[in-house]
Each structure stands twice: as C-alpha cells, then as structure tokens.
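question for whoever is on the cluster today: can someone run the full assembly for these? two chains, 255 residues total. i dont have access anymore since they changed the login thing
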Amino acid sequence: MKISEIRDILGAKVLCCEESLDKEVLSACGSDMMSDVLAFVKNQSALLTGLVNPQVIKTAVMMDMYCIVFVRDKLPSPEMIALAEDAGIVLLATETRMFEACGLLYKNGLAGEKD
Amino acid sequence: MGETLHFHYDVDGGNFTSAGDASVHVKRKLRQLGFPPETIKRVSIAMYEGEINMVIHAGGGTADVFVSPESVKIVLADKGPGIEDISLAMKEGYSTAPENVRSLGFGAGMGLPNMKRYTDSMDIESELGVGTTITMTVNL
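^ ran it for u. tokens below:
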C-alpha cells in the first residue's frame, strides 16, 4: 500500500516529506509504547501512534520506518516535524482513533507483520 | 577504513527531549561508512535503549562508540544509582521506571533484554551508589 493510500483511507493531513508519498508500505504496527515498538516490531515500515514526543520520531529512525501516523488528532511539535524531515519520514495526522485507524488499514490490505 | 574510529557523546540526563540524539548521530555515521543496514539497525536500537535508560535512571552519562571493520563496540557509562539485581533487571517486563516515564512511551521493562538481544555480547558492571557501565559489541 502506498503512503498516499494510507493518507486517503484515513483522511489524513500530510505534515512533511510529501515527496515520499509514493513509497510502498508492506506492513504496519500501532502502539503508544515505544518500548514495545523497539522490542517487538520486526520489519513494519509504518507506525500508528497517539504518543507525541520526539522519541516517537527517534524510535522510527532506529527501526528504519518511513511513515508515522498520529491518530486521534494528535499533532507533533515543529521540532518533531524537523526531526522527521531530516530523517525522510512522512508524518501523517488523522482524527481517526487508533482502533479504527488500524482496522481501516488492515481491511484495505495492509498487513500487521510481513516476513 | 583500516583503523578504529572513536565517537564520544555526553548524554544529558535532565533532558528527555534530546535523549537518543547520540544514537541518531551514530546511525548516520555508520550509514556514511557503508555498514550493512541490519548491522546499523542492531547497533542503533541497542544504543538508543541504553541512552534512554541513562536518561531515565541515571541522570545521564557518557557514550563511547568504537567502530572497526570487524565490530562496533558501544560503552555506556553513568554515575547513577547502580542496578541492585542485574538478573532481575534482565527479565522482560521488569521495570523500576517511574510512572511518568511510562506516559512518555518507555519503562516497559524491555530495555536491557532488548539490548542483549540485538548485540553479540553485553557486559554490565554496576555498583550501588557508584554507577553502571554497559559494554556491548556487534560483530560484522
């Protein structure tokens, strides 16, 4: 699924790295616990989260993820957006809540885990 | 790259916002040096977990990274309270992190086990009231 499709399905706003909307995301994960993302996530390239602090971006950097979706209307700070821009990570923001956002993407063919 | 490169960082203990900056920097350096992506990921996750730990538990410390063609060695040293029971701290899910740390997305008790999992060797030296030094190596 292209990042642009994630944007469309979730009615999300693009906050940075618009030039990478054509990138393919094969699987995603949803968590507010960065500890768990670092411990359990394998090759998922998109993260859905309701947590807003710079460690969300840095966690995504460490995990080689290239798309973060902020759910339930959470908005990252300009500092976080700058960090993401620097790392080439697309930031999306949607009003949709976590459960629904994950469900919508899953229903449309995005996997939870991809080996 | 024949010789060993050394990177040194001071990790600011009072600043949760800047935690992880050293790991981001190391990741970028290893990319520039052309290391394999899987190696870079292992090094950077292990170091990032360690950096976060130093900020949460120890009031900061220092991070030294030694890069050679054979391995990447990470030495994290702090003058924090020390780890009372290392085998307990190594258990998945065991955490002494305060509640406010959990609201920041950390403190699930996965840090140390994760550092061990992503590295080829990990050594913890800790003395109560003196500090902790963790040495991790990822071989190429």
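summary bc i know u wont read the tokens: Strands of chain A lie at 13-16, 28-30, 46-49, 67-70, 90-93. Chain A has one domain: 3-107.
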